[in-house]
Recover the amino acids of this structure.
């Protein structure tokens, strides 16, 4: 875990998974600009260090689907926070892939991967993070749902199942953690122009854009701003909520 | 302060009980103050006081003052 500057004390520390690309990166940049101390996570140590250096954050690379690696990372994080007289204030779990396959072409390993990344990852991250947040009896957790959790989408049975689980998770989690001053919310993005969309043709992207009320794809910053709001004191009386941020998208 | 005194003080603060109640035989869920909600407050406070991170299995296992000491001992906290 590398430190990239010496002026971190008194800043709110927020762990962001998947912070080196797409929505996670946009959130890392947004929060850093608001003077949070961003703990930058992804699987790639080099990418974590590069992003951490660029925003004055701290790199903490680990794979969210590896329970042992996750546990060791939190022990490292605990030591870092202790040494710098900091507490963990926030968690934003943005890591995770999306697999699009027709239902009958989807192996059991695919749904297992989706559940590991999105559900088990969120569960364990929330468990370890909230334990750190309880020390100060305050904190905020944001998890990522998706427009497909509510609307469904052809070819995304596994992905939408995992994302729907997140919406159930935040409702129960908010009830358990509220008594410790910890809020739990989710954002359900529509189709966002991130590396997850690289496989889509320009024609398909345009078709999706035209399916929104606002006639455009979302940008990572559109989601990052809402996540930053949910993590902030401005959302201090919000918990157990999923905010749809999709430009009015209606999926077929 | 000895580690035992720190442990007693942490139990007192976290569970809002008297110091003389913090004996090895005190068990989880045998007094109203040590319920599941307070248990996690206690765990967080012990972790902070002794600078450890307990595993989920240890949190579940920590069902008495005596066992709390045994678990902390595994993390090199000497009583």
């Amino acid at each position: 875990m590398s430190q990239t500057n010496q002026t971190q004390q008194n800043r709110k520390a927020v762990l962001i998974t998947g912070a080196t690309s797409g929505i996670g990166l946009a959130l890392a940049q947004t929060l850093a600009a608001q003077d949070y101390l961003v703990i930058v996570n992804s699987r790639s140590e080099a990418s974590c260090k590069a992003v951490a250096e660029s925003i004055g954050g701290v790199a903490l690379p680990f794979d969210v689907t590896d329970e042992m690696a996750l546990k060791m990372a939190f022990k490292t994080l605990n030591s870092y926070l202790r040494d710098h007289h900091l507490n963990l204030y926030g968690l934003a779990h943005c890591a995770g892939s999306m697999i699009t396959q027709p239902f009958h072409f989807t192996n059991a390993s695919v749904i297992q991967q989706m559940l590991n990344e999105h559900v088990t990852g969120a569960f364990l991250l929330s468990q370890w993070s909230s334990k750190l947040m309880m020390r100060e009896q305050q904190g905020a957790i944001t998890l990522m749902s998706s427009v497909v959790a509510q609307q469904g989408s052809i070819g995304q049975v596994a992905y939408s199942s995992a994302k729907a689980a997140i919406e159930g998770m935040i409702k129960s989690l908010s009830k358990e953690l509220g008594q410790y001053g910890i809020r739990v919310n989710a954002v359900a993005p529509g189709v966002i122009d991130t590396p997850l969309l690289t496989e889509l043709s320009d024609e398909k992207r345009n078709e999706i854009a035209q399916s929104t009320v606002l006639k455009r794809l979302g940008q990572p910053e559109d989601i990052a701003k809402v996540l930053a709001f949910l993590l902030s004191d401005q959302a201090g009386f919000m918990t157990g909520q999923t905010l749809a941020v999709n430009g009015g998208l209606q999926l077929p | 302060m000895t580690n035992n005194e720190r442990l007693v003080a942490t139990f007192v603060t976290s569970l809002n009980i008297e110091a003389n109640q913090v004996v090895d035989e005190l068990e989880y869920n045998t007094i109203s103050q040590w319920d599941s909600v307070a248990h996690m407050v206690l765990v967080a406070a012990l972790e902070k006081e002794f600078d450890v991170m307990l595993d989920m299995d240890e949190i579940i296992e920590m069902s008495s003052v005596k066992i709390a000491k045994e678990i902390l001992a595994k993390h090199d906290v000497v009583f």
